[in-house]
Fold:
Amino acid sequence: MGHGDGRGRMVSPTGADDAGTGILHVDMDAFYAGVEILDDPTLRGLPLIIGAPDGRSVVSSASYEARRYGVRAAMPVSQALRLCPSARIVPPHFHRYQEVSRQIMTIFESITPLVEPLSVDEAFLDVRGVRRLWGSPAVVAGLIRRRVREEVGITCSVGVAATKHVAKMASTLAKPDGMLVVAAAETLDFLAPRPVRSMWGVGPKAAEALEGRGIRTILDVRQSSQEMLDRAVGSALGHRIAQLARGEDARAVDTERVEKSVGHEETFDIDVTDREFLRSELLRLADRVAARLRRAEWEATTVSIKVRYDDFRTVSRSQTLPEPTAVGQRIGASAQTLFEAIDSCDPVRLLGVRAEKLRPAGAVGLALWDDDEDWRRVEGAVDSATARFGSATITRARHLGRGDGRGAVWHPKDHGID
Structure:
């Protein structure tokens, strides 16, 4: 795969064979950095780090000039500056990124109704039904790249393939500002030499487990027994990667795709050892998560927490709720229970709460006895006050006057790391 900095880039020549294709994966190039350069052209060509200037914060995104020094998203800003001392730090402007994202999605939807956004800066498109209107898939891909550049002012990379998995891999290889077409008949040859780490859904731990058994490429996956794959990564993932290695991916472009989780995280200015304070923070973060759920009319069926310690060791835990909820008190209580079960008293650098496996509010109805009725009424009143007076005017009494020195509440996982 590509190296994230443009090395190893692969692009298709004009007129490349796109027989049997129809799925596009379109991905903006270093999106946050691209928007900042769009708004301030003097930044063009400079190594940029998008993030807070506080050395304890993390990198949200980086320009390709900074990436060539080894700067990566989610890396501590302090580490990024050691790698690239000349980098310019630019604070993130998330409302602006959302605004530009809407422009981009509008372009996609003007070409085909079959658009599946994955985040603010990438989407799948099914263009098989618009051939008569716009041309073959590769022609459509070229049109999209042109329109995004001319109408929005940033660049994107596009993978064109017969399946979502291969299209996503192709767009990564084409970065930056490129297009890679993989004809259906070329799928197996395209996949064979790619590292297992490049497969969509294979994380670092699964990759290490496969590599430890000598399974380093997708061809190695194809040549391995199902039993060996299952032993390495478990039955579910083992069967899944065996299918993907054979070029089999029946997933359609899902126009009904919704946000699968809502979360908030906080990086502290000073590492925290006070367990009671951390429990309070979990409740505060849960309140923010619940408020977002209620605004979007969703409920969560699972709660998860993330704890990052002073040595950057990160622990995650999750719990399925007895019934779906958008009540902050309920989400917070679950988060606190998960936290208490972690056997560590080391100083905490970052804390996060996430609501997962969302479903429309009220989809399963209320139980005969609603244990959360009082809290629903209280939090509903809070929502009304917030809508009228702003979010800074109301909070739990336990959060007032703490003087705790919290850092910026933004974290890239809240907004999707670029």
Remarks:
- Residues 275-296 form the longest helix (22 residues).
- The chain has 16 helices and twelve strands.
- The first strand starts at residue 23 and ends at 28.
